[in-house]
Structures
1.
Amino acid sequence: MRYLCDVRHIFLDMDGTIYHGGRLYPTTLPFLRFLAEREIGHTFLSNNSSCSTEQYGEKLHAMGIDASPEEFYISTDYTIDFLKRNHPEIRRIFLLGMACIRPAFEAAGFQLDESAPEAVIVAFDRELVYERLCRAAWFLKQGIPGFATHPDPFCPTDQPTWLPDCGALTACLETATGVRLKVLGKPDPGMLRAAAARRHVPVEACLMAGDRLATDIAVGVAAGTLTCQITGPGADLTPAAGIHPDYRVNDLGELQQLWQEEEQQLRR
């Protein structure tokens, strides 16, 4: 049996886990201090590919969290790592996504190609232009392989709107073309394993905490980490058959309390 006290690194989902929309949960900063006091590392692990890691850092800084780009691993990072490891032949890509993530692909050596790409990359595109959606569909129909950064059909928000996400765009393209895309991001266990490898920590010594069973908890289960579902306000509690977390708490404060209680028990 594994214990929270054995955890040396925690992977934290963001929206619905440490904040909701633009509001930081009051338990987040105390929990991060709790981890730092025990020299337990953390990584913010997100499927959302509509922002760069620098932008995420700025968002958290505005909420009172100082986080460097190295403390994030998002589906954009995993897509790049996946392509470089499994498809080194692909260098030219058509990117259906936000302009802010283009530099990450370029820095990794990919060329953005609007006329003769070797792959189509579909991300969460909040600047979606219909003509570019059609262009992506055309390339897929010509036999160009397609990759989606993550499967989420919608993005959570605390605003009076609904945000179709990468999974919705993927479904649109697959329906229109009859072509299946390779979907990356959580719950693909490769994402968590790749993030753990970057941190030089074995997955057996990690905990995955998040609100969504189908992505956050499923990726931890598949990768072999301990898992904790966050169920408080702003969490996405959509059921997922066969996915069961090791822990279920209302917020990170309750997780911290469980952790401290376990520490006390083991000291006896």
Note: Residues 213 and 240 are 6 Å apart (CA to CA).
2.
Amino acid sequence: MKDITPFKSFTPYSRQSISEEDKTCVLEALNNPLITQGKINEAFEKALANYAGTKYALSFNSATSALYALYASLRALELGDLESFYHSLVSKDTNFKTKSIITTPITFSATTNMMIACGFKPIFADVTYDGNLDPLKCEEILKEKALRGEDDVIAIMSVDYAGNSVNAKAFKELAKKYDIKWLSDSSHSLGARYIESTNDEGIKIGSLAYASVFSFHALKSITTAEGGALLSDDPKLYEMAKLIRSHGITKKELYHSDQTTLGFNFRLSEINASLGLSQLKKLDSFITKRNELASIYDEAFKNNPYFYPLKTKGLSSRHLYPILLDPKYHCAKEDIVKRLLELNVGTQVHYKPLYDFSFFKDYKPKNEHGLLRNAEDFYRATLSLPLHCNLEKEDIKHIASIVLDVFSEFN
């Protein structure tokens, strides 16, 4: 093996960036009379809606909770009310037909877990070269169903893989053509923009789809430690999700309230919201730095014989920096990861196709092999390198050098 200088200390593929200003805001929130259900959360939601360009933003204790509220509200709107939705989950009445949502297998399991929790059947479609859901493959599924006279698909749920927007124009057209909803799991992409042409300033992620979900997990564009949000322009969806978030209770005057439906405690605390509000002010500078660091990787890796960086379109949030390995290195990937760990460079694989997990075995694609070729190839090839705002330009140069040297050992 080569005598490679390790990175100065272990760095994971991502890490939160917390400033003294953030800490001050959290301490101020702790000194407030209300540390839950107060004005800071309301301010955070308003700031999110203003930033993304939507009418409504609803905060949650996680993006997973936000996804549940979205799927449940979507089904409730179709059935008429939340009571009908909850009844459909436990009823054996055949009038409640199972509905489906087309989605990507290259995502974290929460995207699909919450579908199943809300009684939906996920249908996995293949991805494009950038890891994003392929609208052409989605339409193939919709066309086949139309030919069979099936109308069970209610929506498409895309995921902005690594912070790169999906083809928004194509998904909007699909939703209109087949009279379904386009939903976006935008957990990776807060701060990104969808750009159709080089002269286009772009549209911020969050305002493109019928409804979008953001994550504020520690490793995302901004963090509330744990947290998430649901954004939409639909007032009915907003009101239903609001009920689900807080026990199904509607507050009235004084101590009077009414519980009109089943609900949960999915609320975000004032402490978390204060951190989110402080971080949101720095979001654009975070995105700028992530893109500057990514461009150093891009230059260092140009024309190397081992792998190529994932190509981006528009303005990416650069939540991840994935590289795609040349097929001759696929079998060595695990050993490469171990060698990088020895040199203090942490990596991760995003993601194993969901239908390859035991839990999702009943949702394998209905084809000869029960798999999707592009998704499988993407999983074998992808590896995420460290990229976060605690790294500096010289750090990225050093990591890039380590990565290239390690790959040369396996050449």
Note: DSSP finds 13 helices and 14 strands in the chain.
3.
Amino acid sequence: MSGKGEKSSGRKSNLEPEPQVNPYADILTCLRDAFNSGRTRPAEFRVSQLCGLSRFLKENRKLLLDALTQDLNKPASEADISEIVLCEGEVKLALNNLHTWMKDEQVEKNLATQMDSAFIRKEPYGVALIIAPWNYPLNLVLVPLVGAIAAGNCVVLKPSEISKGMEKVIAEVLPQYLDKNCFTTVVGGPQEATILLKNKFDYIFFTGSPRVGQIVMSAASKHLTPLTLELGGKNPCYVDDNCDLQNVANRVAWFRFLNAGQTCVAPDYVLCSRETQEKLLPALQRAVTQFYGQDPQNSPDLARIINDKHFHRLQGLLGNGRAAIGGQSDEQERYIAPTVLVDVKETDPVMQEEIFGPILPIFNVQSIDEAIAFIRKREKPLALYAFSNDSKVVNKVLDQTSSGSFGGNDGFMFMTMTSMPFGGVGHSGMGTYHGKFTFDTFSHRRGCLLSSPHLEMFKKIRYPPYSPRHRKLMVWLLEHKLGFPCSIL
């Protein structure tokens, strides 16, 4: 659930040319000294910091809800299920499994190494940078942080300056629960982010738009820094003619209008036949009325647009096609009504850029094959959805397309599953996280082979001068695997 870019969505704005002064050099030196001292490596330290995160969430629940209300007018129920509860679940999972995750992983050996000890060690990268967006300003800071802590890293957090309420909590309250020598927060906008990225980090985790992702990747490349990019894109939603349309409408409407549509995995447009569109529209209207009442503007369950800039961008998109449902807006409240657009053109901005608001265009196709072709000629999306009573239709869309995640007959409930990796592919991102996958993301998998300093008589066949007999024996030893652990070390 990532925030989007400046033009097409709501993430980090343009990163401006940096001044020569580097105010973060001393901070990073202190973090690197703390990491090099080995402070973050023991399991006991990691557990203590994860427990600190748990206390932060429990003791500041009202403060967090108030910040989410201030930034997005986010309903308490949405704030709970999409922000606080998911973060609590990630912390609990890490605490319950940390020792298992940290264990060396034994690997298969060949006969030539049968007396050696071979394993994979999960070691922390060092000092990691986490840059988060504004649309889920708690979730998208803390979930990566949980994995970074569990993996034993020091961390610099950069929350979004757009979600000012949550930025303040992350900067002023969260540090009270963590080791200040190992974790710090940097606040500010594009200028501060640009200066920050000038520094060398050991890992960068960025959630934002593809456009800014390219800037982050370019900055990382100067230091050959590994990174994860959680980006976005336009998520297609195919609706088959053979559907329970009210069920489809209920699910699509909720996932589209949750958080006022400011969700990177929300269905961004519907592909269906014109006949299905005419049946789907009244079902969508019933869903909107059931969820938000006759006047959604007065509903306590509908969030608002993050700021004036994004409100005006969305207001401009309302002029694409025709508003079959909604279309109203109120600048003073930054309110955009749950809106469904029809008669849109493929070249319209609403079909070209990520919407990141409560607007759902419907684009007509005549067959599933046409829908698949439409999807495949565009960048690979972060998520893709297909609705049909026929499982063969859903599986055909799954088999013949590519996306970061896929939902058949539902929306982005996969986001709630720590057992599932989440991340983009191609233009929508690289790398995955959630649950153990976040621990893995922030861990370097170090291949290790420990051999005895003795037993040289068994090693001699490797050395020159080479003979046909020794070569044949070495080939045999290398080709045959040992199916059980054996080590004299």
Note: Residues 281 and 435 are 38 Å apart (CA to CA).
